[in-house]
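Task card 7
Instruction: Convert sequence to structure tokens.
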Amino acid sequence: KMNLAAMTPRDELSSTTYCLADPGREYLVYQTESDTPFHLYLKAGAYRYEWFNPDKGTIVSTGSSIFPQDRSTSFAPPFPGDAVLYVHVPDDR
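Output:
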């Protein structure tokens, strides 16, 4: 699903400090405090996202967004507990 070989630790891109990224292509962020929004610095582009609940082993929510400029963007997990956010450029672009 993701190209882990191209991703490197880029903890400075997320306020959680737990981030693997291939900037401009894909980002994987771990959030330990679900009641606290966090920031992720994204390059401009169209992205798909998935929220993964590691306690249940399930994808909880998916969607897409367009970010017209490089910027720090706020995210908040849609469920309680630890959360993983996967943000990536759609394959069908």
